[in-house]
Amino acid sequence: MRLTEVVKALMFANVAIFFVVSFNLIPFLPNLRNYFVLLPIGNGFEFYQVLTHMFMHGSINHLLFNMLTLFFIGPLVEQSLGANRFLFLYVSAGIASAALHLFLTNNAAVGASGAIYGILVAFATMYPNMKMMVFPIPFEIKAKYLIGAYVVYDLYSGLFVNGSGIAHFAHLGGAIAGFIIIYSWGLAKLH
């Protein structure tokens, strides 16, 4: 599947911001990272962080996982929705992930994971029976089961696993937004 325009732009923005901030490529802005971290309310939170946090990542592995997921899943979702709706879904899922994370935790967060979860759940909601393969699992799994397992894992981990450094509730916020948006647009295939 060809790389679509919004997916391409989002990937470029995420990779560029990661490297510019991580390697301090704008020397006259030494605290640039502070603009891209979602800080807890009452502990440095600024409203713009609800948007900017989804363009910074904590590590190269975090960036790589999110961008690979966007690369493989994003184009089909963008082609199904159109560029404007896809961008709306991505940004809305990212904002919802920030909102749930801020409401339920008191930790800083970075990354596009919440927005990516919105795209994943949108994909699973529109194409529930599409078969997917994930390394190292040697067989195909329907999207609704594979992505559903990710969501259940994040719910369990958010409730019962402390100190993992993963913003599980941010993932769930994005997932909820992805489902609500696709369902409200009448594109859900719940079978």
Give an account of the 3D structure.
The chain has a single domain, classed as Rhomboid-like fold (Up-down Bundle). With 191 residues, it is mainly α. A two-stranded antiparallel sheet has the order 1-2. The model has no long low-confidence stretch (mean pLDDT 93). The radius of gyration is 16 Å and the shape is globular. Strand 1 and strand 2 form a beta hairpin.
Summarize, please.
With 191 residues, this protein is mainly alpha-helical.
Helix content: 55-70%
Please write the string of helix (H) and strand (E) elements.
Answer: HHHHHEEHH
Q: What spatial order of strands do you see in the largest sheet?
A: 1-2
Look up the CATH topology. Rhomboid-like fold
The average pLDDT value, as a whole number, equals 93
**CATH architectural arrangement:** Up-down Bundle
- The Cα radius of gyration reads 16 Å
Shape: globular
Largest sheet: 2 strands, antiparallel
Number of domains: 1
Q: How many helices?
A: 7
Overall structural class, as computed from helix and strand content, comes to mainly alpha
Task: Write the CATH homologous superfamily.
Answer: Rhomboid-like
Query: Which regions contain 5 or more consecutive residues with pLDDT less than 50?
Result: none
Strand content: under 5%
State the separation between the terminal residues, measured CA to CA.
25 Å
> How many strands in all?
2
Output the CATH class name: Mainly Alpha
